[in-house]
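Sample intake sheet
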Amino acid sequence: MKKQMIRISILQSSKIMTALYVLMGCIYTLIGVPMIIFGSHQIRIVGVLYLFMPIIMGIVGFIFFCIFAAIYNALAGWLGGFEVEVKDVE
C-alpha cells in the first residue's frame, strides 16, 4: 500500500528538530570548555560562543525548520509529497 505525505505539521516537527539541534550543539560545548580553560584570550572568546551553541543551534534550527516545513507544505500541494510505502503488521 503506497501513501503520500502531503503535509508536515510545522510546529510539532519544528519542536522535534529543535531538540535534535540542541543535542548536536552539545558537541560544541564539549569543544568549548577546554578552549575556555586552556586557551588564550581570543580562544576563550570563541570558547564562550561554543558554550552557548546548543541554544543558538536550537533557535536557528527551529526558525529554519519552520520555514522548510512551510515551503514543503506549499510544494507538496502543487507537486505531490513524499511517497511512502507502508505495510500492516500484526
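Comment: The chain has a mean pLDDT of 91. Residues 2 and 85 are 4 Å apart (CA to CA).
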